[in-house]
Amino acid sequence: MKEETNENLDEETERLLKEIEQSRIELEETFLDIDKTMASLEKKSYDGVRDIFKYFDRINDKLFNFNNILIAGFFAISKLKDDVPMWMIIFPIVNLGVFIFIEYMIMEKSRMEAYILENFNEERYRKNINKTNLYVLIAITTTSVVTLVFLYNLLK
What we know:
Layout: H1 2-80, H2 90-114, H3 122-155
Helix pairs in contact: 1-2, 1-3, 2-3
């Protein structure tokens, strides 16, 4: 009888050990899936920040070119119309200064990326990107204002 009880206990212990092992394997698979998901989310986050910056950079390039056209337009208007003073050219030139500053910020971002393996500060990098994005939004606003001033002087 005692032998039968020991045999039952051995079988029950073996069954429990198999269940524990199966649970451990399932837990490891779950944690592996969680790690993969987290890595995927981190990559998406990084790609999202990078893509936002890429599109702001493209917008900045187009606005820079448009601002150069506005400079030429202000020169032309001031020569064609007597009531448009030459000093109005200051608006697109100041705006050009904003674009040059933004280009400098983009260069700084690229410099940080060049030294990514040496002394990289991710918080500083993200702050730089966010500041540059803010400056591009400001440039969009200032270019809109300069365009409105140009159109006002053209159509008056």
